[in-house]
Every structure is written in C-alpha cells, then in structure tokens.
Amino acid sequence: MNTSKVWYVTGASQGLGLTLVKKLLANGYRVAATSRNAQLLKEAVGLRDTGRFLPLSADLNNPDCIDESIRQTIDAFGQIDVVVNNAGYGMAGTIEEIAEQDIKKIFDVNVLATINVTRRILPVMRLQRFGYIINIGSVAGFVGAPGWAAYAATKAAVAAFSEVLALDVKEFGIRVTVVEPSGFRTGFLTQNSLAYTESRIDGYQAVKDTQARYLAGNGKQPGDPGRAAEILIQLSESEQPPLHLYLGKDAYSRASEKLKVMTQEIEDWRELTISVDFEI
C-alpha cells in the first residue's frame, strides 16, 4: 500500500466522505478534505496532525474557492494523487412538486461541483502524468426508484461525465472510476443529506410507497461505509481499476436486471432502430 499518496476528498464532514478520511488517516495517508465548515470537519475527524491532515472550507460551486483549496493542498503536500468527488445529497419527491430552484441546486451540488473540481485539478494531474479520479455516483443513476427522478438525473450525469472523462484523460496516465452504491448506513436519508418533498397529490402511489419504505429503512441499510472506504483505497492501488463499480448486493441486482431488460429491448426493436439510416 503506497501511503505516500495524497488524497483530496470533497464533502468530508459526514457520511462516506468522513468515514473515508478517517480510514485514510488511520492508514498513514496524507489527506486534504473539503467541507462547508472546516472547523466542524476538523472536530468530526478528531485528528490534530497538521502534517497529514488539511481540513479546508470550500464552496464547490465557487471556482475561486476550489482553486484556493487546490493551491493550499499543493503547498502543504506537493501533489494530488487521488481525488474523490463525494460532495452531494439526495432529493425525493415528484417532479411536479419539487421547486425549480431546488432542482437547480441539486444539479449545482451533485453535478457541477464534481465537474468544477475535476476540471481544476486536471492541470495538476496532467503535469504529474498520473492521477486517479473517483466520482461518487449511485445505482439510482442507472436504475432509479419512484420519486427519485431529480436525484437519479444528477447521478446519471455523473456517470456519463465519468465515462467520457476517462477517454479524454487516458493518455495522461489519469484513471477514472464512477462508484455507484446502493443503500449505505451513512445518514443519507436524514435531514442534512436529503431534500424530501412529501407528495400531496392524489395518486403517485408508487412514489408514496417507495418513500415510505425508504424512510422506514433508514439506519438499516445493508451497506457498510467502512468497507466501502476500504474498497476505495484498494481501487487506488489497482493498475487497472474499473470504470464503473457498483457497491452493494442491491446495486448488483438492480444493475444486472436492467442490463438484461435493456439488451432484450434493444434486440426487440432492432429492425426499427436501424431502419432510420439511409440505404447504402
């Protein structure tokens, strides 16, 4: 395990981000971590070793803040080897009942922040001729659940961004993985991590049933964030990490089933699909 690597982790004050930062520091890595409040982050991590831990206050939708956090990281550690774009939150509710400004906000945090951090760290990694970018997506970005359309759209965007980014930066020795978990016990369904709009419209029964089931299962999710953090560290040591990594039995089942359905649907409609081309 190469503990000389420097990690830059966003959204690190709670959930998977906090678990990962603690695990990295326990294993001797150097870590720069961002949060909206660096003091709260420092208290949550509990480590006072300024030689290995750099807590940073950063508004990830402000390019100047991102640039400053990267500058401070380079000044402190001299390099950035692994980036984990973890900042984000959930949103549940019907599309017609969620306010437009709330939809814009979740895209700002879940998608644009990931893109902004990546585009500003890429010059550092290109000069190094190496680097590893881990974007935290969700199985919902591939197989969404009723009532999670806005959130699923953001995570689908993160997955598509990661796929093309990997093609763009391969020649520089930079690798990319989008991690797509199912339910983890990270407080994701709590007030600080979920914007929830209860439906008051008659109908939408699938949405209401799904939300009730999800909220009732809060704190009982099967995913272990500690194990997930260990897997992210393991990925960073791999010479050929996967482009997509689903985490959790539920993620595996949902993704596998959708692939089967999609394959069958593509074949069922093959003749109509190819009929649109000019005859050659």
From TrEMBL:
Keyword list, A-Z: Oxidoreductase
Gene3D superfamilies per UniProt: NAD(P)-binding Rossmann-like Domain
Single annotated GO MF: oxidoreductase activity
SUPFAM superfamilies xref list: NAD(P)-binding Rossmann-fold domains
InterPro entries in the record: NAD(P)-bd_dom_sf (IPR036291), Sc_DH/Rdtase_CS (IPR020904), SDR_fam (IPR002347), SDR_oxidoreductase (IPR051911)
Pfam families documented for this protein: adh_short
Similarity-based family: Belongs to the short-chain dehydrogenases/reductases (SDR) family.
PANTHER family attached to this UniProt entry: SHORT CHAIN DEHYDROGENASE, SHORT-CHAIN DEHYDROGENASE_REDUCTASE FAMILY PROTEIN
Protein name per the record: Short chain dehydrogenase
Species of the source: Chitinophaga rupis
